[in-house]
Design a protein that fits this description.
The structure is a single chain. The protein has 406 residues and is of the alpha/beta class. The protein folds into 2 domains: 5-31 and 297-404, Aspartate Aminotransferase, domain 1; 40-294, Aspartate Aminotransferase, domain 2 (3-Layer(aba) Sandwich). Helix content is 40%, strand content 17%. It is built from 14 helices and 17 strands. It has a 7-stranded mixed sheet, with helices on both faces. Strands 13-14-17-16 form a 4-stranded antiparallel sheet, covered by helices on one side. A hairpin with a 4-residue loop joins β11 (256-259) and β12 (264-266). It starts with a helix and ends with a helix.
């Protein structure tokens, strides 16, 4: 069923905003999506009716908040088809989820001379934690190359995988390019050598059906704020066998069974990795965001976004000196481009004056920009509430940019 973007837009109050007396056109969804009323209302309802710390309280508010929190965990399990609810760890987002695994995994499984494998197109959040781990343990970071289209070189991947590889960490969808990586194939090849795989799913969760059991990955991470949910909340999925082997990431309340001054015994999953007072409200907001996506239909959203992507590319091709960055066969709704003779920041600044919000710069993927030999790109990324008419307005703005710079 086609998306009725005009009807969906009514659920997003912020889209009524005006920028310089022009209607806001928001094309920065890969950075963060806007939040529908169902999410905003869920946050307010919690604080007005359920606000309490969870799990440890015997009183009514604690009981109903705990039930809602754990129901959200089970709904997130279903959303990505995890096998067990205790394989769902709530984090502050993808970045913390990756840091958790990098820190805990490397403490136990990474030694001098070992290797961690990432790709050229990774976000800094899936580079820096592994660099730190390698530095701390004397290991080496290896990088899967890509081709000019922004696709992984799978033959090179085969050659880099070795007996020294302790873990592979790759993005499902590139935030800067929109490339959809063949994660099932990546996992299969790694598992043939008994190498675990972490998938950064921050850009995949809003657009693709995620089935962690089909992918067979060992860890999968994503953030709420990129899928219509609140900021500061996300999910780490981990196979039970791995989560049981990893040491805790942080110490404090909730992650313990028993504490004496001599020793501490740790709690069972998932609580071993959820130290301290949890972000209850935003977990419930994320749960509401998942409901919003499922009600709209993930396939419907994806088809709508693909139409917007294709239309944007078609219109951009009509402009002079446009260079596209990321032209993989399999893509989500990200269009990354630049005028060959105009700095991306200048393009983005002028578009902002016209009410069009795009992202400019390196998109926390500096090594990728270095590969292409550019300072950055202009990135337009789409969501369920965007329209073709908005794209036409952006193209008009880009024509003015072209005219201003000759």
């Amino acid at each position: 069923m086609p998306i009725n973007a005009d009807a969906i837009r009514k659920n997003f109050p912020i889209l009524e905003t005006e920028i310089n007396k022009r209607p806001l056109i928001y094309f920065d969804n890969a950075a963060t999506t806007q939040k529908p009323l169902v999410v905003l209302e869920r946050l307010r309802y919690y604080y007005e009716n359920e606000n309490s710390n969870i799990h440890r309280g015997a009183h009514y508010l604690s009981h109903i908040a705990t039930e809602a929190y754990e129901a959200a965990r089970n709904n997130l399990r279903r959303f990505i088809n995890a096998g067990e609810s205790h394989e769902i760890i709530f984090t502050r987002g993808t970045t913390e989820a990756i840091n958790l695994v990098a820190n805990s995994f490397s403490k136990k499984f990474v030694n001098e001379g070992d290797e961690i494998l990432i790709s050229t197109m990774e976000h800094h959040s899936n580079i820096v934690p592994w660099q730190i781990a390698c530095q701390e343990h004397g290991a080496k970071l290896r990088v899967i190359p890509i081709n000019d289209k922004g696709e992984l070189d799978m033959e090179a991947y085969d050659g880099i995988l070795s007996d020294k590889t302790r873990l592979v960490a790759v993005t499902h969808v590139s935030n800067a390019l929109g490339t959809i990586n063949p994660v099932e194939e990546l996992v299969k090849k790694a598992h043939e050598k008994n190498i675990p795989v972490l998938i950064d799913g921050a850009q995949a969760a809003p657009h693709l059906h995620i089935d962690v059991q089909q992918i067979d990955c060992d860890f999968y991470c994503f953030s709420g704020h990129k899928m219509y949910g609140p900021m500061g909340v996300g999910v780490l999925y981990g196979k039970e066998e791995w989560l049981n082997q990893l040491p805790p990431y942080q110490g404090g309340g909730e992650m313990i069974k028993e504490v004496t001054f001599e020793k501490t015994t740790y709690n069972e999953l998932p609580f071993k990795f959820e130290a301290g007072t949890p972000n209850v409200a935003d977990v419930l907001g994320l749960d509401a965001a998942v409901s919003f996506i499922l009600d709209a239909g993930l396939d419907n959203i994806a088809a709508h976004e693909q139409q917007l992507h294709d239309y944007t590319v078609e219109q951009l091709r009509k402009l002079e000196k446009v260079r596209f960055i990321g032209t993989a066969k399999q893509k989500t709704s990200v269009v990354s481009f630049l005028f060959e003779d105009i700095h991306p920041y200048d393009t983005g600044t002028i578009l902002d004056k016209l009410g069009v919000a795009v992202r400019t710069g390196h998109h926390c993927a500096q090594p990728l920009m270095d590969f292409y030999g550019i300072p950055g790109t202009v990135r337009a990324s789409f969501a369920a509430y965007n329209t073709q008419e908005e794209i036409d307005k952006m193209i008009e703005g880009l024509q003015k940019v072209r005219e201003m710079f000759g």
